[in-house]
Each structure stands twice: as C-alpha cells, then as structure tokens.
Amino acid sequence: MRVPGPPFDVREPGSAAGSGRLARMAARLRFVRVTAMFLTLLASQLLSEPAAAQAMAPQPLWPSLQQSLRLPSWMEVGLELTADPLVGAGANADPEGAWIQQLVLNATLSSGLGRDKRQWREIDHWALNLQLTTFNGDPNLALALGAAFPLQTTAHPTGVWLTEAAVERRAAGEELFIKAGVIALNPGFVEAPVLNNYIHSALNNTLNLETYGLPINPFVAPGVMAHVRLGPGSELRVGQFWLQPVNRIASLFGVNPQQPTISGSLQMVQWNLHDLPGATAIRQPLRYRSQVISRQLPAPLLQIGGYNNTGPDPNQVVYGLLTVAAPLPVGLDHRLWFGFNKGFDPANNPNPTFLSGGWLAQGLLPGRPLDVLALGVGRTSFSQLLAPGLVPEAVIELNYNIPVSSQLSIQPVVQWILQPGGSSSRAPLVAGGVQLTLSF
Predict the structure, then answer these.
(1) Which of 15, 21, 70, 218 is least surrounded by Cβ atoms within 10 Å, i.e. has the fewest?
(2) Are 31 and 287 in contact (CB under 8 A)?
C-alpha cells in the first residue's frame, strides 16, 4: 500500500523557485558525497576485518532497554530504529537523495514471560501487546525519481502511528493460537522471514500487495486471527478485519494517511507448510573452521493463501511464497525463494500481478561467516483498466548485511529500477545507499 506524495518543483532557475532548486541540488550533492564517504569507509572496514573478529553468533554491544529500566519479569519493552538513506538517479538526470527512518516501540505484558513454559498455567498463555511507530524524514524519493514504488520499506507518511493494540494467546512453544484487537496483516499473514532481508518496498514483507485500505503495517484495523496446527509441520491461519476505521486509526496522532477511506471487511486464509526438503538438514549445526556458527537464514517454508475484500469495491487475491534450502559449493548456507500474488479484480486492484524471486547466501566472504548477501528480483504489473498503457515496473536489488552485533546491523544496497513508473521509454534508475538497524 504505497501512497504518492506531493509533486516536486521542476521550475527553472532565475526566480525564487530557481534559487530553491539550486539549493536542493547542492543538498543532493552533499548527500551523495556523505553517502559515498560512508560506503567507502564501510568497505575498507569490511575488507580489513580479521577472520577471528566475528563471533560465532552476534553479541550485544550495550544493555537492552529491558535491562536499563530494570523492568519486572512480566513486562518486556524493546525499541528498534531503522534508517534508510538512499540516493538515486536515471540517465542524464540530477541525483535525488532522501533519508527516512522508522522507530518502533514494542511493549508486552504477560505473567508467562518470567516463567518456564513447561509450567505455564492458563493465564500465562495470555499477553497484551502495544506497538507505536514513528516515521521521520522524506518518504517521497520514489516520486522524485519517477518510480511507482518506494525504494525504502520505511517510506510512509511521517508522524506517530498506533501499529498494534491487541490481546493474544500463545502456546508454550510460542505458536500463536489467537490474536484480537487493532492489528495488521503482517506478520500474521503474507509476510515471510526471507523477505525481511530486502530494503525495496516491493521485495520486503508483503509481496507488494497494493490494494487501498489493506491493513498492512503501519496501517492497522480491528481484527481477529487464529492459527491452528494441522500437524507437526503445518498450520492453517484465518483472519477477519474491518476496514472502515483504517484511516481513523492511522490519523489518531495526527498522521495524514494519504489514501481514500474504504468500507467493508477482509477475510484471509493461509496455509503454512514447514516440513519441506532440507528442513531437517538445517537443524544441524552450521560449522566454520571447526566452530559452530549461528544460522542467519530462515527455515524452508511454503505459504499459500488468499483474501476476499467485501464491500463497494471488492477484491479477491491469491498469493504464495516458497523458501527452499539450496546446497551450493560456495559459502556456508543458501536459500532460494519465489513469490507471487494474483488479483482478479483489475477494476479495483491497481497492481493485479506480482512475481518475485531471490537468493540468500551466508558466509560468502572468508572470515565473514555471519554476513548475508541478498539478491532479489520483483516485477509488478499495472491494471490496464485503471492505468491503460503502463508496462510492468521491475526492481533488482543486491545488498549485503553485516551484523556488527546482535543489536546493530549495516546493510549496503544497490537497486536497479527497470521501466520506472510503468514507462517503456524511460531509462532505468540506479539507486544506492545503506540501511542501518539498531535495537535497544
């Protein structure tokens, strides 16, 4: 669910607007220089890192917020900051840069948090969750470059959002049975762990579902979802959401959601299968130079689902994602993944088809067993009823995640946008930058 922002100023110099344009160009050049210096410093640090410097698993660098506040055992609080400075340009065009960041505060209250799960009573299974998210910076880099979809997953209208207020019941094995309240589709549906390795919005998280009104984080809606185990290796997930309040909840603290209000409800069904070829093998320790190394890649997973959006503008969509282990002769561990969504209502769905795939590799570089390289490709079509003549926009992303610690990661990224904005005559866009993630 991507929301365009206001158009940028394209008037010529020679007036106040021209002076403003020159100032913006100077700011862009400074942004490019700072980003280039940062990436150069990062590359020199990466190449000079001795083989023994990385631990067998990421270690913390500072006390957690939980420890610093000395909270009771029945309360968990966490804070995570994600920053996405990127700069991009097309052929014969001035570079455009933008910094957008997301700060997420999570709080969970449950008597079961401080107890051995094998000794849980019924009340210990229940938890109260609250999540607040704030976005700061410029979310309109894609608009300035002429791309249809944001280059940063964090590109949302700025301000403070309520992104969850819910009660959930968990099993002792941490499998969620039921959750109700003000919630989003993800991570309960669509979202897969393998997609969290990417930065472009079309590749990260939700298979680029673009129908207005869907409660995809940071948008939320009143809803309920249930997960039911069908056996040791699979589960069924069902959910019901009410869509009318989505914009009112988004604007609770003054955010302009920048999308039309819709009515109706949303029903979702998804089947997850974990018992796939290679699943048993990756339960074995990962070894590097006779040491046991923490696996950074997600387990194999098959997800197949669909949703039905009832109301004045109905939508039906099916989707799927497959993550498989891939034994390759280089590196330490590999995953291949393939995803799609297909909509059946082009009169109401602006992007009825999405195809994607990618490769994750852990430990490709000698002496860097915890680093992960990610390559992803996505292709999104446009409804010919709503936007006749537009051709699919495609993205190729290459990034490299460096876990400095369990609380800090640095992820340089390069993206290529093909047929930006759905125009077959426009030259490809190239963008680069870095994602910084810190947790407290």
Answers:
(1) 70
(2) no
